[in-house]
Amino acid sequence: MAFFTRQFIRGFSSTAVRNVVIKQVTVIGGGQMGAGIAQVAASTGHSVTLVDTSEDILKKSVKGIEGSLKRVVKKKFADKPEAGEEFIQKVLQKVSISTDVGSAVQSSDLVLEAIVENLKIKQDLFGRLDKLAPAHTIFASNTSSLPITDIASPTSRLDRFGGLHFFNPVPMMKLVEVIATSSTSKETFESLMNFCKALGKTPVSCKDTPGFIVNRLLVPYMGEAIRLHERGHGSKEDIDIAMKLGAGYPMGPFELADYVGLDTMKFIIDGWCEKEPNNPLFQSSALLNKLVAEGKYGRKTGEGVFQRTGGLLSLSH
């Protein structure tokens, strides 16, 4: 009987996933990333429930979505203001908010978290939701650096778990990294890829390796720029100018590090270094550690590698 039950559940799960077309989406986390994902999903006809811990946070999220939509409409409906307003209202009607995550996931095809980058918090969340969400529901994380396999480990739906790494600002950035673990089913992966395409995004397939593709290349690049400066081989300003004019990059590595957030950069590097302590690309630096310890995270705090004074950049000392 036990064997029959396992086979039935396995067969049911596989069939459910195979037929999933993602229409109902629950986004957990009403911050900039979560709100951006909710906006894009609602703009493309998906029904979205945005979840966070308080009504105040969610009201700010919806206000942010409305402001972002107004900027979109200003360009897209420049000559048709009435059509633009209609578009905004149509999108906002597709977004509902909730502080009850258990209730929110009960009719979801996809549950996507965009919460704090803390492995245990993510594991606890998905471990609880695994018991509440329907069998067909796909779980996904928007993590930029944590292993999807580790996040998924407390659940019983390893075949229905993947990564969807969006980029900030979500409404503007076209790329989504779609991450499959060794347990992610082909059906789940295809559902996630199709969902991204339905959002108007360009998905790329990634393995569950540190940093996936973009951050795996980008973070060591920024780290090596810092070490290059620490060795006395170039000033911060000259390194940034060199990469912008010589490589055609829109930002140099130091300006980019300030944009990403030095605290975020340090968090990613420290996590990778813990797993691969002998990898030279995953080593931190004295300058990075010093700036983060001083609370100088970059643009979000007004000072990082560069100071921001009256909208102008100047070198920090």
TrEMBL record:
Subcellular location: Mitochondrion matrix
Annotated site (Important for catalytic activity): 165
Domain 3-hydroxyacyl-CoA dehydrogenase NAD binding residue range list: 24-209
Reaction equation(s) it catalyzes: (3S)-hydroxyhexadecanoyl-CoA + NAD(+) = 3-oxohexadecanoyl-CoA + NADH + H(+); (3S)-hydroxydecanoyl-CoA + NAD(+) = 3-oxodecanoyl-CoA + NADH + H(+); a (3S)-3-hydroxyacyl-CoA + NAD(+) = a 3-oxoacyl-CoA + NADH + H(+); (3S)-3-hydroxybutanoyl-CoA + NAD(+) = acetoacetyl-CoA + NADH + H(+)
Keyword tags: Acetylation, Differentiation, Fatty acid metabolism, Hydroxylation, Lipid metabolism, Mitochondrion, NAD, Oxidoreductase, Spermatogenesis, Transit peptide
E.C. number: 1.1.1.35
Binding site for CoA: 68, 75, 144
Protein origin, superkingdom: Eukaryota
GO process annotations (BP): cell differentiation; fatty acid beta-oxidation; spermatogenesis
UniProt: NAD(+) binding residues: 29-34, 52, 117, 122, 144, 168, 300
GO terms assigned for molecular function: (3S)-3-hydroxyacyl-CoA dehydrogenase (NAD+) activity; NAD+ binding
Domain 3-hydroxyacyl-CoA dehydrogenase C-terminal, chain residue ranges per copy: 211-306
Pathway assigned in UniProt: Lipid metabolism; fatty acid beta-oxidation
Recorded GO CC terms: mitochondrial matrix
Self-association and partners: Homodimer. Interacts with GLUD1; this interaction inhibits the activation of glutamate dehydrogenase 1 (GLUD1).
Biological role: Mitochondrial fatty acid beta-oxidation enzyme that catalyzes the third step of the beta-oxidation cycle for medium and short-chain 3-hydroxy fatty acyl-CoAs (C4 to C10). Plays a role in the control of insulin secretion by inhibiting the activation of glutamate dehydrogenase 1 (GLUD1), an enzyme that has an important role in regulating amino acid-induced insulin secretion. Plays a role in the maintenance of normal spermatogenesis through the reduction of fatty acid accumulation in the testes.
Family membership noted in the UniProt record: Belongs to the 3-hydroxyacyl-CoA dehydrogenase family.
Protein name: Hydroxyacyl-coenzyme A dehydrogenase, mitochondrial
Organism annotation: Salarias fasciatus
Lineage per the UniProt record: Eukaryota, Metazoa, Chordata, Craniata, Vertebrata
